[in-house]
Amino acid sequence: RQLSRNIRMLQIERDSWLLWNRARDTLNNTRQDLPEVIPGSSDRFIVEHHLLNNPQLRMAKAVQGWLQTTKLDERYQTDLKMAMTKLEPKRIYWEKTCHFLKSSYNANIPNPYITCLDFDAAHKQKRRLCDTDEQEENDLLQIVFSLLRVGEYSKAKNLCKSTGYHWLAALLSANELYHDENYYCSEANDIVYPVEGNQKRIQWIESMFELCMDMRLKLYERAIYGLLCGRIEALIPVCKTYADYLWAYTSCYIEQEIHHILVYAHQNELNDVDKHRVLSNDELGNHQLKMTTIFDEILADCPAHIRDEALLPFNQIEKYLILANYDRLFDSILSFLHTNESNGSLLRFSTHICLFLYEQNHSENFNQKNFIEILTTYIGHLIELEFKDLVCYYISKLPLNNQSTLMATFLDTLANRQDKEHYLKQGFTYKIDIDTSLLKLAANQQREQTFDKNNTDEIISTNLKNLNENDHKQLEALKLLTTFLSTQTLDALRFANRICRYFLNDAKYEGIRIALSYFPHDIDIHTIEANNRQQSEDDLREFKAFGAYIAAIEAIQRWSEMHQKQQQQQDNTSSVVRDDQAYLPIVIKACYGVFDYAQGWLLDTTNIHQSLPDNESRQIEMSILRHKCIPMLACNLFRIFDLIKEDQETFRLIVFLSDNRKQQLYSLFSKETLNSVLSLTEHAAERCLDRQQQQQQTDDTTAISYFL
């Protein structure tokens, strides 16, 4: 069942494309080389000239041709062939009726049937044929109408001739437009062409208009006459689907328009009686159709099931394409999208129709926001179905200011960096603004994080924390920025600083190391593009500040490993102690690289960032990190000095932290942290006093010994 439904949807989509193709070709490729009409020579040329200035009539003929083509599917052709097979081998002679007439002629039997075999005997005598003959004639009329429904006028006429209904074939021919080619041949041409069509078509239409509503005629006979003269009331009873209704109304509109064109073209050729009758005949104008109101009339007069069919999404879209009402077209498509009535075929067709209209400069006829929403929905559908190779093409069809947002969203759905790099290169091919897309991708990776100034749970911790999935996404975005950004290195640097602040707040030092590795180790103001150098001074200082802090953390971690190894190998400490002591200056230098950072660690020296929208939050974050990280680093260094009893270094650090010329870094310490530092300093002072006392005792003992 699902397969059958999918096939049906594909057929409907195909038919809708046929409509668009016919409508576009009809409106754009009208014949322009028509000869001037010679009076009294060609109704066909009169109508064709009128078509040049009547786009509604051209559209109606395109719609009629489309409805005839789509009706003639495989199933319809099979049914027609089977029905025609029953009729073609024999001619319809009304055999049963004829036999009854012969047998009842001398028997004085009451006769309810016709008494002569004229083709219009039933109509004139108000009698009927025998049941079998009646059924055969009904079958023939139904097949003829079915052929007319799909535009097969020639086949219908041939069928009528082959079955003996020459009068019906003549009626079908009477609808053809009059044309005498001999008027348009050169004088040197010796060939005499036959005259085509019906020169008295105006009067003939009047007769057919009355005849098609004669209820004594058969249903399909009236429908055939109604089709030929454009009387919709005669056609409606045989319409079974919405497509039949639309075809009937469109065909009648065309016939009515042609009739009025010819009436006004030939009004000077009519005698006074005919002119008065034709021009004042209200009956012909009672139900004058207009292309703009056909759809409303269908909904007003049709049964409920036809109305439901008319309101289906594809039929509504086709309606607005026919009316060239593109604003309503876009509104209806969005309505289907919002009410979840869309499917793959509908969304695909709708999107490409919108693309055609947008690229053919019809954008003044619809709301561009609707176009963007429809195309964005389709791109999302492609991403969902993992048709990734198509995404960049459709993104490139969006207005420039919308491309980058959707490209960033698409990149965010890709699982690995190789895919992102591949589609970024594809984006370059389609001339998508990759720089802005990458910056928006980076912005999408930002997460809300609380920078808690009072958080001292890890005040002296240098333990590593694992990076989560979101952290890796941010680092991937940074890698893409540093790889694919054409000139905006400063933007990549600012994004790196932002995520480094987050990593430092969470003590995720590995994330900072990775972020730093994406830039040259010797990056300076001359590395930044020339037009951004003046704006990059504070950003460079911030970036290098993270590098200095990571260097200090790594030095402390390395020293801690050495110290733990020393504790585990108490029996052979000589070499370990030498490594421990030898590495201590490196630790001290790295930590002082943070404490004595030029003009202050994580402090701006210019006012450049004050004009940026995120300046306030950035300043708060840097202030919190200063209050958090510098005390943590100092406490770790104090602990090291305490463990190896480097009391002089303890005092030197205390003096440095309280130096007015060094921003008085002790002011960043919380009360608890200061107490911890003072406690460690107290231990160092006690050790110094103990050593001083021991040295004094040693000196006294030496003096006594010398005296003795």
UniProtKB/TrEMBL annotation:
GO molecular function terms noted in the UniProt entry: structural constituent of nuclear pore
Membrane recorded as keyword: yes
One GO BP: protein import into nucleus
InterPro entries registered for this protein in UniProt: Nup84/Nup107 (IPR007252)
Identification of the protein by name: Nuclear pore complex protein
Subcellular location: Nucleus, Nuclear pore complex; Nucleus membrane
UniProt similarity note: Belongs to the nucleoporin Nup84/Nup107 family.
Subunit structure: Part of the nuclear pore complex (NPC).
Subcellular location, principal: nucleus
Single GO cellular component term: nuclear pore outer ring
Record-linked PANTHER family: NUCLEAR PORE COMPLEX PROTEIN NUP107, NUP107-RELATED
Key words of the record: Membrane, mRNA transport, Nuclear pore complex, Nucleus, Protein transport, Translocation, Transport
Pfam families according to UniProt: Nup84_Nup100 (PF04121)
Highest taxon above the source species: Eukaryota
UniProt function note: Functions as a component of the nuclear pore complex (NPC).
